[in-house]
Amino acid sequence: MADVRLVDIEKKYGNFLAVPQLNLTIEDGEFLVLLGPSGCGKTTTMRMIAGLEEITSGDIEIAGKRINDKPPKDRDIAMVFQNYGLYPHMTVRQNIDYPLKLRGVDRAARTRRVQETAEKVELEALLERRPSELSGGQRQRVALARAIVRTPSIFLMDEPLSNLDAKLRVTMRAELKHLHHELGVTTVYVTHDQMEAMTLASRIAIMREGRIVQLDTPKRIYSEPADLFVAGFIGSPSMNLIDGAIAGGVFTAPGVSFPVDQPDRDDVVLGIRPEDLEISTAPDAPVIGKLYALELTGESTLVTLRTGANSVCARGPADHEAEINAPCHFVPKPGARVHLFDRPSGHRLDGLSAKGQTL
Amino acid sequence: MLPYWLLIPAFVIVLATTIYPLAYSFVTSFREWDLTKQRRPDGFVGFDNYLHAASESGFQNSLWVTTIFVVTSVALTLVIAMSLALLLRRKGRMHTFTRIVLILPFAMSPALIGVSYRFMFNPEFGVLAKGLGAVFPALEGMPWLADPNLAMAILVLTDVWHWAPYMTFMCLGGLASIPRETEEAARIDGASYLRIFFGIILPQMKGVLLVTAVLKTIFALKMFDQVVTLTGGGPGTSTETLAFFVFNVGFKWYDMGYASALAWILTAIMMLISIWYVRMLLSDRKMATA
Lengths: 359, 290
Description:
Chain A has 359 residues and is of the alpha+beta class. Chain A has helices at 42-50, 92-102, 107-120, 136-148, 166-183, 194-200, 218-223, 228-233; strands at residues 4-13, 16-26, 31-35, 57-62, 65-66, 77-80, 154-158, 186-191, 203-208, 211-216, 240-247, 250-253, 256-259, 265-272, 277-280, 287-296, 300-307, 310-317, 327-332, 339-342. Chain A has two domains: 4-228, Rossmann fold, CATH 3.40.50.300; 237-342, CATH 2.40.50.140. In chain A, the strands form four sheets. Chain A has a six-stranded mixed beta sheet with strand order 6-7-8-3-9-10, with helices on both faces. A five-stranded antiparallel beta sheet of chain A has the order 13-12-11-14-20. Chain A has a five-stranded antiparallel beta sheet with strand order 15-19-16-17-18, with no helix packed on it. Chain A is elongated and about 75 Å long. In chain A, 42% of the residues are buried. Chain B has a single domain (51-289), classed as MetI-like fold (Orthogonal Bundle). In chain B, helix 3 (57-88) runs antiparallel to helix 10 (206-221). Chain B has 13 helices and no strands. The radius of gyration of chain B is 23 Å and the shape is globular.
């Protein structure tokens, strides 16, 4: 087991700066998720840790040792790839065995460890098959088995669940979480799926254009997004973001007025999550508009109203019914959180900045 | 009815230029036909033409020459094509340029290649003969095309030079279809470059290499143009390939019956190789899907 430190890491492709000056410390035993939209540099960052991508400048340390110039095999890491990267000409057993064989482990120990690992990921019955004879979920398990069989000090996982169907993804997610709990190995996990990030991570690093915009626990990222990007990225449906101004301790926008604890200013964005709003009939409700859409999700109904140029969504009870275009009022639930952001910079207004946050 | 009418011209052309001559040569291979004496094939002689081949030294020599030529030329072409493909796989600055240059040898007519190599290996004024002589003095004045072994080596060289680029493209295609993750996974798993090549890349290239080998084998079995323009089958009969020998029997000595039989022997060899190849490919697929 080990910690990973990235110090002023930079990656350039020709003139294109993919990752500028990144600093990140991944604690021993932590499950760190790199989350962001495609092209944000998360996979590049992971590949630099793996040694599959050269770093342009900066240092990478694993367990306190600088490993910039070490080839991937000497970094004591194991990686699970998005497309699994299984060896198609080998059986499942040979696939799992390969890293041990390369490391010169003796035959008896290899057989035992392959067996144990296969049992851990429930592959015992499939050991003599080839990858082409397996389903997506089974292939993913083989990839996992190949990664854990030699007990590395760091796991790197590059969108390992993105090729699976929705249902299997949820099951495998739970298995990954259990596996991490059982093995306790430091894990770096890349995904663009915020649900995966929220459920799996000890900490999430949200990336955008090569930079980490927020590094925090899933809980804090959800409850205190550092800027507009994070606020809009995390949560489904995403947070309502309404442009307006603060005057006399009240945030106002067309059809929206919220008392807030901030000095007067223009160019403010108010954010409130759909689950923090409820449907009301109160004539003085802070959000008033016309019903735009009703979407039943099963356990609840998403109610969207329009007011001025804004759409505001609330999560209502599953049995809520109303006519489209009928007047519709939302009030915050008791204990609801209201977030305020500076429009030009996107930063959160209540003192939290995007940088320098600690746990 | 119209579709069938429209098909007729193509059908007639194929019948007249391919099927009829094939059938005719097959029948001729069982007959005696000396073109200097008769305008039409003579009586049937059963398997005499084929049996004659089994004991005739000219044919046996050409079979031996062809075997040596095919084995060396196929092996060299494959090794060189695979190596070039590995080098060219990475997309560098010269990517497009190298690919254009690479296609040039393949665009040249084989007969012309033979002529130009004959010039280049002329001991008096050949640029390659002189150049090699300048670098290695021991080779100065070497009678390249007058030595049986060297002539064969140069014949192989021209063929490899002609075909390696095309086969390189086939290998490049094969390499491009290998998922990059398998190599990266092997690097992380701890494999050296050599091990990645032999243990991960080569097994995944099996299908492509098999196709390449069979195509190259069939092309090499037909080797004719360069023999005519480079060595004329010589010195002696040392570069008389099967195709060249069949041509001589038919159009120099006008023994059409025997020539037809020889041509069918060549065809049979190619068919056997093709069947073997399809079997290999099918068994490979079975292994992958069963």
